[in-house]
Amino acid sequence: MRIAIASDHGGYELKRQLLERLQDPDFEWSDFGCATEDAVDYPDYAEVVALRVASGEFDRGILLCGTGLGMCIVANKVPGIRAVTVHDAFSAQATREHNDSNILTMGGRVIDANAAETIARIWLSTPFMGGRHERRLEKIRRVEAHVQELAEEAGLQT
Ligand code: RB5
User: Fold this and answer.
1) Per-domain residue ranges of the chain
2) What residues have CB less than 8 Å from 29, skipping those under 6 apart?
3) Which one of 15, 34, 44, 65 would you pick to mutate in the ligand 1 pocket, going by the greatest count of ligand atoms within 8 A of its CB?
4) Disulfide engineering: 52 pairs with which of 12, 16, 26, 57, CB 3.0-4.6 Å?
């Protein structure tokens, strides 16, 4: 599995620890920065990873910032990305089974490296269930592709 990873300064230390802990033969990591704890802007890093996952260059992405939230907001602007912020094991499994999420975001100021490793391992190894969930993903793609028409139909401006 090819995995793109990036962080801002708030997630840098957690990224460093995760990369140390998740050196399994099944995982091929590419680190897109940042490389120190100097302050940077999370959208720059989320954009790079999200575009590369959406293009198919990488199978999955992991983004780490202080909360996981800013990274998630940005990544979900890229069509084809289903990014999720996860800080518990149940959600890590459920979001893979139900949402086929392709980017995981976590907060370095929210959880420690032990919890993040557990969550990442579950998220990386759990397959999508398909079936009824595929229909729901189709509906996500419909919103993504037709947001302008859907807003017009509803009499809204975007
Ligand atoms: C940086 O201070 C912080 O805002 C960032 O890491 C992240 O938590 C944003 O959502």
Assistant:
1) 2-127, 130-158
2) 3, 5, 19, 22
3) 65
4) 57
Question: Is 0.90 topped by the overall pTM?
Answer: yes
Query: Residues with catalytic annotation?
Result: 65, 98
C-alpha count within 13 angstroms, C-beta hemisphere, residue 143: 11
- Residue 145's pLDDT is what? 93
Pocket of ligand 1, beta carbon within 6 A = 8, 10, 42, 65-67, 69-70
Q: Does domain 2-127 have CATH number 3.40.1400.10?
A: yes
> How far is 64 from 12, CA to CA, in rounded Å?
7
